[in-house]
Amino acid sequence: MRAQYFRGNVFVGNLPPDLTEDELAEAFDPFGIVLSAFIARDPETGKRLRYGFVDIATERAAKHAVEAMNGTEIGGHSLDVRISERPAKVKRRPPARSSGQRPGRGVGPDHSHAAAEPQPYRPAAPRRRQPTFQVERRPLPRRV
Question: In this structure, what CATH number is given to the domain that contains residue 49?
Fold first, then answer.
């Protein structure tokens, strides 16, 4: 069974009721490598919903697929295709430390156990990799 919180990079809405996940993947195959296709289901009843997600290998291919597939008819239904909006990641801030106390052990406003408010997602700055090799420079012998 697929992950319950799967989110591909392309949202596909207004799907025909009889369309399978394999057929959905095949429809997007001309635009790039389709990593997965998922049609949403109601968690309580298991009934198929009319939308799904397709995960395409590159962002460029996903954008191309959106431009080409939006408004296309499959099974008499005009598809609503767009880039999926991923939810912002929620980061929890560690409670402020006061002298001599371990985090989360104190009492008071700085150490409440209530859930932290969601913070807007800010991507981390890319880390600079250290080279795995070292270049040795030496003079070449001169030809006479």
Answer: 3.30.70.330
DSSP readout, 4-53? TT---SEEEES--TT--HHHHHHHHGGGS-EEEEEEEE-TTT--EEEEEE
Report which DSSP code applies to 108: S
Mean pLDDT, all residues of the chain: 77
Q: What is the pTM of this model?
A: 0.55
AA letter at 125: A
Does 23 fall in a domain? yes
Angstrom distance (rounded) from CA 80 to CA 14? 6
Categorize the per-residue pLDDT at 128 as very low, low, confident or very high, splitting at 50, 70 and 90. low
What range does the domain containing 70 cover? 12-83
**Number of structural domains in the chain:** 1
